[in-house]
Amino acid sequence: MTRFIADAQLLKAGSIIQIENPLGTTGRATHAHFFVVVSRPAILQVGDTIFTVGVSSTILRDSFDHRFHIPMKWLARKGGDPETGFDRPCYAIVDFIHILTVVKGSAFPLQVAAQHAGRFVRSDKAAAIAAAFAARKRQNDHA
What is d(CA 104, CA 121) in angstroms, rounded to the nearest whole number? Predict the structure, then answer.
């Protein structure tokens, strides 16, 4: 059972959340990671899905692609950037996807298995991540 539980109704495109042991890009479970909400239904119901893109500070130099690795705002200080919380260079990686399912919960009427501390990316960055996510999806659909 997850120790991370968030009120799904508070999540919007650009919200930064943390997921316990998501599957990494290799398909194996990894340690807890931050994710950016890409999309969610306007009105949430039990069973709805919320699409998120993972954030990582580790990208191999030969695999970096500016179309699919979106730099995040960060600040090298305790607590990181006031908006994102990131304290080192990191990137939203549109191949690092996690899908949350909205459930009826005991902590919140509509909840997801994530932790939300009010961190976010600004709307222009959220739009860039969503556009890169959509482009990658189109590319994969045609492969």
Answer: 27
CB distance 94 to 39 below 8 Å: no
Q: Which amino acid is at 53?
A: V
DSSP string, 39-81: E--SS--TT-EEEEEEEES---GGG--TTTEEEPP--SSTT--
Question: Which CATH code of 2.30.30.110, 3.40.50.2000, 3.40.50.2300, 1.10.10.10 fits the domain covering 6-138?
Answer: 2.30.30.110
Average pLDDT over residues 70-97: 93
Identify the residue with better confidence: 18 or 64: 18
* Token pair listed for 53: 């893109």
3 state SS of 6: strand
Strands (E), 13-64: 15-19, 33-39, 49-56
Instruction: Give residue limits of the domains in the chain.
Output: 6-138
Query: What is the chain's mean pLDDT, rounded?
Result: 89
- Check the CA dihedral 131-134-140-143 and report its sign: negative
pTM: 0.90
Neighbouring CB atoms inside 10 A of 107's CB total 8
> Which tokens in the block code for residue 88?
């080192």
